[in-house]
Amino acid sequence: MDNRPIGFLDSGVGGLTVARELMRQLPHEEIVYIGDSARAPYGPRPAEQIRKYTWELVQFLLTKDVKMIVFACNTATAVAWEEVKEQLDIPVLGVILPGASSAIKASKTGKIGVLGTAMTIQSDIYRQKIQALSPDTQVTGLACPKFVPLVESNNYQSSLAKKVVYETLKEMKGRADTVVLGCTHYPLLRPIIQNVLGQEVTLIDSGAECARDISVLLNYFEINHSRTVAQPRHLFYTTASPKAFREIAENWLGKDIHVEHITL
What we know:
This protein has helices at 16-25, 47-62, 74-87, 96-106, 118-123, 125-133, 147-152, 159-169, 190-197, 206-220, 242-253; strands spanning 6-10, 31-35, 68-71, 92-94, 111-116, 138-143, 178-181, 202-205, 235-238, 259-261. It is α/β, with parallel strands linked by helices and 264 residues long.
């Protein structure tokens, strides 16, 4: 057993979609979450800047004595995951490979779409991972730069969100039977995305798939949290407004949480 917490990092609130799934699947595990909302979105930023910010988030989590770090951010995974994984002596998990693997299993036509930030799509990492596992699969990527600001501003259920999603996804309609939500912010827009693409399209939540891999790694390294703890203590940190973060987080997680502001 290892009763240290699991660290989650994201450019903002999107990684909460991964945290929620982990809480559901592994209710005894404790979480330390850091969301860099003050500098979100990461997607339009240069790779070197994303790498620098990601390392700052990693260093913060290491001060909390975490036993594992989860990159609950596709952009950070695309840019810095390999590098960080090689340099740390604790498990480091990204969201891209679990999402890619699940999309391959779900697709019946071999045509997969990927929605992501500008940097994630530009990196071409989803196509590379998918075609490494399934060479004949066709992958169509689409950058959705307006999605993260909608979520970070708590407008993901608004009429504006419906309009933005419709305009953005027009060119993806009919091009894939399975579409990866290649940014952990996007599941908060899932009902709108599903409505626009059609009910026949299978949406893959890369964050939810990642939570299953976390469970596998905890078992493999034998670092599960003791099940004797009645109420796990989760810690949430943001570089922006704790109030704004808490509103979105409590709505999404369905529970009251405490959020602290930090400056990196």
